[in-house]
Structure formats: C-alpha cells, structure tokens
Amino acid sequence: MNTVFEFAKEHMQKSIEVLKKDLNTLRTGKVSIHVLDGVKVEYYGAPTPLNQVANINAVDATTIIVNPWDKSIINDIERAIQEANVGANPNNDGQDIKLYFPPMTEEERKKQAKKAKEFGEKAKIAIRNVRRDANDKIKKMFKNKEITEDDERRGLEEVQKITDEFVSKVDEIVNKKIDDVMKV
Fold first, then answer.
1. pLDDT tens-place string over residues 1-54
2. Helices (H), the chain
C-alpha cells in the first residue's frame, strides 16, 4: 500500500508544479518575463519557445526587452508576440523588441484573479483524479485478497488525508497569487 501512497503523492505534486507554472503566466502589478512562456516562434520550420531564440529581460515594473540571438527572425518574434496577445504591443527597433505594459486596472486585476482560481480548480480536479486512481488500486488489492478490510479502510483514509493536504496547498498557492495580483 505504501507504493499506492507514494504514487498518489508523486502525481499530486506534479499537479502542484503545473499549477505554479500556470500561475507564473499571470500578470501581477509588476511585469514578469513568464508572461512570454507560452510564446512560440517559427524557427527553421519548427515552433520554438521564445526563450530558446532570445534573451528576455524585465528592465523595470512595466517593460520587457526581447533580444533575439539571430536578428533575422526579429519580425517572426514580433508576429508571435502579437498573436500570443500578452497584453502589450511589441515595438521593434531592428535590434530588440520592447514590450511596454500599461499599469493594470482594477478590472484587469479581477480577471487575473479569476484566471488564478480557474487554474486552482484545474489542479484540484487533477488531484481528485489521482485520489480516484489510488482508491481504485486499494480496492483492487482488497478484492484480490492482498489486504484485509481494515487495511483497505485505513488505506482509503490515508489517501483522503494526502488529498486534503494537497488541496489545501493548492488553495494556499492560489490565494497567495490572488493577493499578489490584487496588490496595487
């Protein structure tokens, strides 16, 4: 049964990591280079993540500079950023692309907070799916007479305890992000 618990913890932790990655793409009061994480550039015929073809730096709270290593693809990078709709129009000066993000309005902050909650719900669903799989494994072990009825009950309780622990972690992470987003 310990392998079932380890399976559950490992997969629930992966859900937490995906949540953190998703939350990094949200914009808070201070701009983060992670808003460009989803941007893919057509490079030698293959969609390539932007951070693999350029340096990306946040120079202040509202400005990001993208410095392509290969200047010949600067127009492709500009197009990819426009299509990604990250909240700022790219300014191409031939060398770099500058993104000036306007200060967030109250409405934009609320939208970002709502997105954070949606990411949290997605993570909770993933965690509950892992719980279901773990419970199914324990029930199968009981059915195959590998464990006693008491062991089955204890195992299901332990899986629920692990699930509750990870769900509260999700709430904690999401609430912290919402506080960041709503802070002016």
1. 889 999 999 999 999 999 999 888 887 777 888 888 889 998 888 899 998 999
2. 2-24, 74-84, 106-143, 149-182
Whole domain around residue 55: which residue ranges? 33-100
- Domain C-terminal end among 100, 116, 150: 100
Match 């949200």 to its residue by tokens. 26
Does one domain contain both 166 and 129?
A: yes
Q: How many domains does the chain fold into?
A: 2
Tell me the pTM.
Answer: 0.77
Nearest in space to 21 (alpha carbons), one of 180, 181, 136, 177:
177
Q: pLDDT tens, 134-147?
A: 999 999 999 999 99
